[in-house]
Every structure is written in structure tokens, then in C-alpha cells.
Design brief:
428 residues; 15 strands
Amino acid sequence: MQKDYKIQFNTLKISSILLYFLVVSCATSRLSKFSDKFEKPPYDTSFHGLVVMEASSGKVLHNTNGDKYFIPASNVKIFTLFASKKMLPQKAPALEYVFDKDTVLIKGTGYPATLHPYFKDSTVISFLKKQKNITFYEKNDEVKRFGPGWAWEDYDTYFSPEINTFPLYGNVLTIYPDINSEVFPNVFLDSIHFQKKSVRRDERTNQFYVKRSQIDTLTIPFITSPSLSQKMLESTLNKKISLSEKFPDVNKQTLLGLETDSIVKRMMYRSDNFLAEQLLLMASSKLSDTLSATKAIAHILENELMDLENPPRWVDGSGLSRYNLIAPESITYVLKRLYDEVPHEELFSLFPSWDRNGTIEVWNNYKEPRYIFAKSGAMGNTYNLSGYLKTKSGKTLIFSCMNNHFRIPTQAVRDEIEFMLKSLWAKY
């Protein structure tokens, strides 16, 4: 009788192993078929890469062109998320300041939420309202208004606000199309012209052009400057602000703002380029008094990602630059690090899913539980998707699918990726 039990047990054990390998091989086969498809017309003239691994073990299940470099577009924001987790405190640094008798001297940290159209954070404003005299320092030669390799003609588009050390109002003019056409900041009230033009703003001046028939909320980047920041602060605080060419070399204090994760989440869900760039500036404020995205990037690459087999060319926080070059293997490496180091509930909450709140919202399948938690990255002839997939059996997979230089509609590429991910969810 005992022998029969042993036989039954061994048979069951063997069957389980065979079933496991059958499922795995089926999933692997589907991945191979997916990659094979991209070797045939109309995909064979473009570049495609796919890496899939088990999140818990790090075992690579599939690798096609994983070591090749691709333009990542907004997949760069995964690296910016990683940098934020490594370099920024739980609450973001909103302002640095020192007191000199009855005067407070302030300087920016890159904090993006002050009077922002979405966050509407008043932490800095509430602090400054309590001060008798304010001197403002905003001189940093290493911060340029646009990132390297950005398209110059995007200067008046909502997705390309300027970068600076002390942003206000998200560095955009916001016009709400109600009866009164509310305008923020209101210092631009006399600079808005209701007329049809091919541009929304003059290239070199803060003169804005709006159609009277505008029915949606409109956001237009404005040209930043210390004098404009001074003017906006004076208007908001209803008090005079002095400008300074230097900041005292003494121990400074830091005013804390919103939870860092709230800024990171907004960056990821809306693929917000402005927030991405400002997060790197804030990160650099923890390294030195000179704000520089380049310094923050170098710090992460040299101290946290020094083991990458294919070191990326990483030049900005948002992915707007076509100078960025990253391999799928490097993206899955960072995703694996995040999976190992960040509580999973917290981590998945930072990545868009297919609900209506993120950038993969059109992947609607509400009959199934959310199983894709990923960041897309798109620009002309480019579509990438990288993140986490929770399978039907309860496993978590990490994936990076990168596609560059295709001439077919982006939706066709998206459809293939969606089919592949749904197959993995069902079969793995």
C-alpha cells in the first residue's frame, strides 16, 4: 500500500513538472512567435527588442535584441523614477533658505509643485507670507531652459515647459475657458491676444495667442527669468521681493513640500515632461548647491547602475531628447531593482495601468483584473512599453518591448504588444 502511494506521489510530481514546463514552453513559444513576426514585412525594416524575465528570480525567459540600443522616449522616466527613489526624501525639498536678521534669503531646489495647475501647492507661499523681508536668488548657469536634443519648435507646446530652479505655476500659462476666461498667472492678462495664429506664443517674448472659440483648458509654456519669478511672487504675496546675485555660504535650512511619490506618480501617469526634469534638479540639490540634471544622472550611473552591461546614454529626465539611447536589458535591470527594493503595492501604484488615469488608458479590458503596470514611450516612429505584468497564475513578469524607426501606424505596433501581453497573462 505504501509503495502504491509512493508511485502515485511520484506520478503526480512528474505530472506537475511536465505541466510547468508545458506552460513555460507555451509562453516562450508565443514570445518567439511575437519576435519572429517583427522579422517579417512590414516590420522587418525597423528595429525591435524584447526582454521578459521572472520578477522574483530574475530568470530571463526571452531576449531578442536586449543588448541593442534604442531611443527610449518616455521610458526614460523609469530611470527618473529610480533616481527619485534613490536620491530624494519622502517629502520633496521645496525651498532652501537662511535668515539674516529680519530678512529671509531664498533659493530654489527645482521643486515643481508651487502654484502648479494640478498640485496647487501653497507650501512655499504660506512660508513666505510670514516673512517680513524676502531676498530671492535664482542664478544657476548650469540650468538651461531646454534639455539637450529637444526640438526647438516645441517651445509653445504644453508638453515642453522650460526648466528652471524656481518654477511657479508649472511654468505654463493656464487659461480656463469659462465665461470670464480665468488666467493663471494673472501677470499675463495684458499679454493675451484673442486672435487666430499659427503659434500659441511668440518664440522670444511672452505674448500669447488664443482663439476666442477655445473650449478646452489651454496651457502654454512661458519664458522664465529671475525678474519674472520676482514679479509673480510679488503679485501673489502682495509685497516687494529683492533679487540677489549671490547666496550666503552658511548652513541653510530646507522647507519640505509634497510627498515625493505624489510628484513621481503624476509624472508617470501623465508622462509629464516638466515634472520629470524638475525631479532630477531636485535630486541634484541633494548633491551640491549647483542644480544640474547632468550631475544627478552621473551620480546614479556611477553609484547605483555601475553594473549595467550596456550603460545608457541618458541625457534628460523626460525622454524628449533623441540623444537618449537605452537597451531593453538595462530597462529590465532597473525594473528588477525597483521590484526588489520598493514595496510592491507602492511600486505598482506608481505605474500606469489600463484604467482611465494613465497613458495606456486605451488598453481597456475591464472584464479582467488590471495586470499591466507599465510606462509607455512614444514619439515619431517610436513606441516602447516597459513594466510589470501580473499573470493569471499569480506570477509577476518584468518586460521591456522597444520599437524604433517603423513607418507603419503606431497602433499596429501597440496591437501586437497587447496581444503578446494578454497571451502571457493567460498562459504563464
